[in-house]
Task: structure prediction
Amino acid sequence: MQRLLTINSFRLLMEPAEMPYEPGELVHVRHDEDSEGRTHRFGCEVLSVSEADEVDDYTYTLFSLGWERVLATDYRHTQLYPSPRGYSNIDEFLGDRHVQGERLLGKFKRRDLEVIDECLTVVDKKEDATKDWFNELQKRNIDRINSVFAELVLLYHLRTVYGRERVSLNARVGEKDFDLRLKTDEEDVWIEVTKPDFADALSDGFGWGLPKTTQNSIDRKLKSKFEEARDRAPVDAVLVLGIYCEEQINQGFAMGQWLNEEYYDVGEICDGWLSYTHLTDTQIGYQSFTHTGERCRALFDRMVEE
Result:
């Protein structure tokens, strides 16, 4: 059963840049609750600048990276803020130097960056092992950035309920790392996250390749991480596969179909899997394969209840 969670993000009053924007820079249009109609939500590239005596009076012609066309309305300087650096937590996370891949991140929709910005409130850049996230960002591949988001959104929900001290990143098992570890007084849960990259499967407009892509991703992750981890993890460790689904109906069907084929006994290496997605809110579902995995259901139910 899918459950509903809400990320309690709120819109801060984003500040425009101190200096005029230049052609080629990425911006977002500031959301105004009082404005009529819908505020443009996609990242935009500045095409041209009309100068004025005061910076706040500069106006800009924008190219929407979501609509792939020039916007009919010109925007004043005070209506725009930098993307992604206009989001304070993202800016702090990226640091003072330019990071390869941040321009691709800046193309994301406003709501997506608002969620990422809120999720980063549970991350301690100095204490948490976030090097892998930077490596993925620098690949400048949207699927890899989405993989980072898949880990981040689950980390956010776990730490919101259980606190930072109980949820760690990149827990070492033998020669492998598990993405997340939740350690309570009763349970020691190790979670490895996978996000099937299915953009190519959707390129023909129907997504017929999506089920196979999801199944292959699950199979690879179980064999590459869980077989070794089962032998090397602490005796009382609970091993859970977190599956981030961007297309929930088809991918959920594919997961059930894969289990029905019974290629091997999943319960021998994995205690359960947590499927989740994030569109406007986060929905989760949990399936156990062992008695130990079933015992942990209450941990994930608590995420929903709170």
In short: Residues 199-210 have pLDDT under 50 and may be disordered. The chain has two domains: 1-108, 123-305.
